[in-house]
Amino acid sequence: MIKRQQPQSSSDKSQEAGYTIIESLVAMIVVSVLMIAIAPVMAFSVATRVQAKRIEMATQAAKTYIEALRSEALKKGSKGFPDPSTTGNKLEDTAAPTDISALYCIDIDKKEVTEKCESDSNQDLVVQGYYYNNLPAATNPAKTGYSLIVRVYRANSFASGVGTLTTQKNLKAQQGITTAGLGNLRAPLVEMRTEIGASDRQGAYNNFCTRTNINGATGCQ
Q1: For residues 26 and 29, what is the distance between their CA atoms, to the nearest angstrom?
Q2: I need a labelling partner for 174 at 20 to 30 A (CA). Which of 1, 3, 41, 113 fits?
Q3: Distance between CA 85 and CA 150 in Å, rounded?
Q4: What ranges in the chain are assigned the alpha helix state H?
């Protein structure tokens, strides 16, 4: 005897449809929880890459500045040339900058035809330099050589509301790549110290000894 299959009641169909909706809601909740959990990690990863790229560009800006001084493309008396140190050979103690217009500009966003860095730019970089050579102020430092410290700041570090800028020594920590995408606007991205050799080699060794104050004497003895 053949039994006929009874059609499903409307209540059974609605019950199956109800299960489907609940499963969809559960899946949506699970996905939302997972997204919330990984969102901070993704944001941190992006911010780290942004800051690492910014520090890389600042390092290149500092090297460009140093090479401009070594080749004398940037000469004493021109805008951006390093100021004489007021702290002797302790260049790390020299003050942080306050005036963006007096600094060497790396105009990355090219907003200005004159390659002027603006305090509202989050791309432009400005370079501060101090030199020391333990010689009379009238002496051309390019001829005798000098010790140099270079700091690179972002142009928007000079925007109103940021506050007084600092140095790595005052901050007591270098600006790392994990200080979020914004980083510390008051601190230099890069700070490095180097020696600029004498452009005229005559007496260069004695000038170096005088700068570094070897044996407390002038020249090498």
Answers
A1: 5
A2: 41
A3: 12
A4: 10-70, 141-144, 168-171, 204-212
CA angle in degrees (0–180, nearest 5) for 192-56-38: 125
User: CA nearest 91: which of 133, 59, 55?
Assistant: 133
Q: What are phi and psi of 47, to 5 degrees?
A: -65, -40
pLDDT value, residue 152: 96
> How many domains does the chain fold into?
1
Instruction: Check: CB of residue 183 under 8 Å from CB of residue 200.
Output: no
> Shortest CA distance to 125 belongs to which of 141, 110, 142?
110
Specify the amino acid at residue 92: E
Confirm whether 17 is domain-assigned: no
Q: What is the pLDDT of residues 91-135, one digit of tens each?
A: 999 999 999 988 999 888 776 555 688 888 888 999 999 999 887
The pLDDT of residue 195 is above 60: yes
